[in-house]
UniProtKB/TrEMBL annotation:
Entry annotated with the keyword NADP: no
Regions that span the bilayer: 559-577
Region of interest called Disordered, as start-end residue ranges on this chain: 236-302
Protein name as annotated: TIGR03769 domain-containing protein
Top-level taxonomic group: Bacteria
Species of the source: Nanchangia anserum
Sections of the chain in a coiled coil: none
Keywords, alphabetical: Membrane, Signal, Transmembrane, Transmembrane helix
Bias kind Low complexity: ranges: 273-301
Length: 585
């Protein structure tokens, strides 16, 4: 089947961007559309990747509108008529590891964003502007060749739960008449969409918003999903030229045929994923990435394993790791998909960096190991289209175990460009419409609602016991602090990703020792630092990916990866025991 209009950030299979789009922002800043190579998709916007709020609800003059928002369209304020779009669920979304959750592999749109796969959720926050307190997303009809399941994972590997009201704990299948509600009201949320089979799925839905004046309903909207390579047919369905598949029987979980299984290797960059090749095993940390079949590493590639290493450091670096009123330990990392606790690790010590592509909106986990006030200094830098690289720095304040000026609600740290100056800014969604404010004007309180016992898997980051946490999934009574590279001034001038760097952490002495590191002052006045680092069997430094063992080019087989985790846990257990023995002397 012809697959026209291919674009890195998605496809607009329309002769003009205005077709199917509601111009709330400046249409001139949107990505330039290409003319459809597949005539079946003329007049339809096909979304292949990026941040998508499929159920985007707004309120004005007492009415409620249901639209679709797509941030990769070039203007994050552009909304689309859902019936004039097709969400493409590519072969790269095939996930063998879905079996652990739903009992069999499936095509999965992930809860945590992945490159080249649509990241689909809902955004009900703007309903607050219409004085509504809560809302239901009502699924009027669901059809397709197999079952559609919607579920959301909790923080730190908690068991997933259904999004529809009144379901059994493991009943994720959605049907006509189901109502989607989860957690705090009027939220912005992403979750898993699992499609049993390749083919065309359609969902019709409307919003019921609840306020003091009663319930207000939106018009019904239709959504079309092309799963596993049926884009042209899906465009015909969206235009009403072809009838959708019938509603599947409950429990229809037949896996798709082999030709729909995705690539058999996991490239270093997801953009390089080949389409159409058979899969062999899932990526350990993602819903839609396939890992190589178990095999011995090539002779030229040494294994990278976690190892306790000791090196000399300056007095300044020793003080940062040791704490005592100086730098303290925090950990910032993304959750993995489908039950993987640790995904992309951002920061575990001062000096760590992490890159965020443009158009990104993501919520990592923030871990604070002890009660107290933390002042976290972060810098952002970005290359501009004029060849310059600009940077800016700000300090966020968190009160673990206490209250601040922001103890709940949705926030995103980002930046805006003012000429050639990069100014970090905080998007505050407690107001509607949201406002961009000085990050240093807000103090985040992470109180008892954020107190949690961490699972053993966080031993890979040197974290154990009970901590204060801002999770990747929103929780009532905890400020939800994310990252955002969607500011319009940034998108207009930036030429590449934004690099974040953890410059400093000031916090309670009890939280010192970044990443489980241990500082020793020697008899001659010098300092040594003992920490976990990546080393090959021959002793050469190497990079540990996501806190797990890896080869120089690709993830290890699950058995070796688990062995690496065991080594890490054992190493940190030893560090903790020695610390306790020293404390008793």
């Amino acid at each position: 089947m012809a697959r026209g209009c291919l674009r890195k950030l998605g496809r607009m299979c329309a002769a003009g961007v205005a077709v199917g789009a509601v111009a709330i922002g400046t249409i001139g800043s949107a990505a330039t559309p290409s003319v459809a190579a597949d005539p079946q998709c003329e007049g339809i916007t096909v979304i292949e990747s990026g941040h998508v709020d499929a159920f985007k609800a707004t309120a004005a003059s007492g009415s409620v509108t249901l639209e679709l928002g797509w941030d990769n369209s070039g203007d994050s304020r552009t909304r689309y008529e859902p019936g004039h779009t097709v969400i493409d669920v590519p072969q790269a979304a095939w996930a063998d590891n879905a079996k652990a959750v739903i009992g069999h592999p499936a095509y999965v749109l992930p809860q945590v964003q992945e490159a080249n796969i649509p990241w689909v959720g809902w955004d009900l926050m703007e309903l607050a502007q219409g004085k509504f307190r809560s809302a239901d997303i009502v699924l009027d009809e669901v059809s397709g060749p197999g079952a559609l399941r919607l579920f959301i994972g909790g923080n730190l590997g908690e068991a997933p739960r259904p999004l529809a009201k009144g379901k059994a704990a493991d009943d994720y299948v959605v049907r006509g008449g189901d109502r989607l509600v989860d957690g705090p009201p009027l939220t912005h949320k992403h979750f898993y969409w699992a499609f049993d089979k390749a083919g065309i799925y359609t969902v019709s839905a409307h919003i019921e918003a609840h306020g003091d004046a009663g319930t207000t309903s939106s018009a019904r909207q239709s959504y079309t999903f092309a799963v596993g390579g049926h884009t042209g047919e899906a465009c015909q369905v969206a235009k009403g030229e072809k009838a959708p598949s019938s509603t599947p029987e409950a429990g229809d979980t037949t896996p798709p045929p082999a030709e729909h299984i995705t690539a058999n290797t996991a490239p270093a960059h997801p953009d390089e994923t080949p389409a159409g090749a058979p899969a062999t095993s899932p990526a350990p940390a993602g819903a839609g990435q396939a890992a190589p079949a178990p095999a011995a590493p090539a002779a030229s590639t040494e294994v990278c394993l976690p190892k306790e290493v000791t090196r000399k450091v300056s007095a300044e670096e020793a003080e940062k790791h040791r704490g005592g009123g100086s730098a303290s330990r925090i950990a910032v990392f993304e959750s993995g998909n489908l039950g993987t606790v640790v995904g992309n690790v951002w920061f575990t010590k001062v000096g760590d960096t992490h890159q965020l592509p443009l158009h990104t909106h993501v919520h990592p986990n923030w871990i604070f190991p002890a009660a107290g006030t933390y002042r976290v200094t972060l810098s952002q830098s970005v290359p501009l289209k004029n060849g310059q690289v600009v940077s800016g720095k700000t300090t966020l304040t968190f009160i673990a175990g206490g209250s601040g000026t922001a103890n709940d609600g949705h926030f995103d740290l980002g930046a805006e460009l003012r000429g050639n100056t990069l100014q970090p800014m905080l998007k505050d969604d407690r107001k509607s419409p949201p406002t961009w404010v000085n990050p240093e004007s807000v103090t985040f309180g992470v109180g008892e609602a954020g107190k949690t016992a961490v699972p053993a898997q966080l031993g890979t980051l040197g974290i154990s016991g009970t901590v204060y946490m801002i999770g990747s999934t929103q929780k009532a009574g905890v400020p939800w602090v994310g990252a955002n590279t969607q500011n319009e001034s940034l998108l207009a001038q930036a030429a590449g990703p934004v690099t974040w760097k953890l410059e400093d952490v000031q916090g309670p002495a009890g939280a010192a020792g970044a990443g489980g590191a241990r500082v020793t002052k020697n008899a001659d006045g010098t300092y040594t630092l003992t920490e976990i680092a990546g080393r090959t069997p021959s002793g050469q430094p190497c990079t540990l990916h996501g806190g797990l063992a890896s080869t120089g080019a690709s993830p290890l087989t699950p058995a070796i990866a688990l062995f690496g985790v065991a080594l890490i846990l054992a190493g940190f257990g030893g560090l903790a025991l020695r610390a306790q023995l020293r404390a008793r002397k």
